[in-house]
Design brief:
The mean pLDDT is 94. 41% of the residues are buried. A 7-stranded mixed sheet has the order 4-3-2-5-6-9-7. Strands 1-8 form a two-stranded antiparallel ribbon. The chain contains 12 helices and 9 strands. It has 2 domains: 207 residues, Vaccinia Virus protein VP39 (Rossmann fold); 61 residues, rRNA adenine dimethylase, C-terminal domain (Helicase, Ruva Protein, domain 3, Orthogonal Bundle). α3 crosses α4 and α9 crosses α12. By secondary structure, the protein is an alpha/beta fold.
Amino acid sequence: MAAIDGLPPLREVIAAHGLAAKKSLGQNFLLDLNLTAKIARAAGDLSGADVLEVGPGPGGLTRGLLAEGARRVLAVEKDSRCLPALAEVAAAYPGRLEVLEGDALAVDALAHLTPPVKVVANLPYNVGTELLIRWMTPAVWPPFWQSLTLMFQKEVAERIVARPGSKAYGRLALMVQWRADARIVMTLPPEAFTPPPKISSAVVQIVALPAPRHPADPAVLERVVAMAFNQRRKMLRASLKGLAPDLEDRLRAAGIEPTARAEEIGLEAFCALARGLGR
């Protein structure tokens, strides 16, 4: 890609700007531009979309997104050391890259984006899950984004796509799969990064559904799922005790045995229980 955009390899960029990764910011830089281009392609056709990128660092994925034809990229970067490197990328793609300095948890990115919007990011490990939860739980659905193509620690990615009965299955899987399709599209070993993290990483693609798979009040569903998995080894009649005086009857009405445990229960049954409790 260096030949495409005329910019130097990322190792040279990092050396020129003194961009040693900071553990406090959850930084692990992906230096292989072939890999960053592959992640950009995993997000699908970008030519008609604005792309939100969180934590661009020295701009490897940013360059991939622009080279793959993104209409426009909005990059939110907390580390001011990275801004000069990102300015060089912006100069190579006039009018197509806007960089916002700030914390992605605090910045109002929506004011800078024009639909349709895709989110593509190698998320900093220390804020990745919190950002995902915010993107999956807006006040109104469908959300501002069409798809999320995000890198997480592999264990987090596995929790997002987990199915009932598996050890990884829990609140995150239900929250995402209620409103979206999710799949792991790529895994990366620690040595792909500088510095290498202790565990593998994975890229998950999440595509928003027009409406949730099954009707349920979001607040009731979240409360039920949270209580069920906070004590996941207990039977549901115990972990959900206090939700209703006739809890066992409501569990059975939703097709759930009161002696079942949370990890055995699928999304549709949890939604049925939430509807029953919400009446």
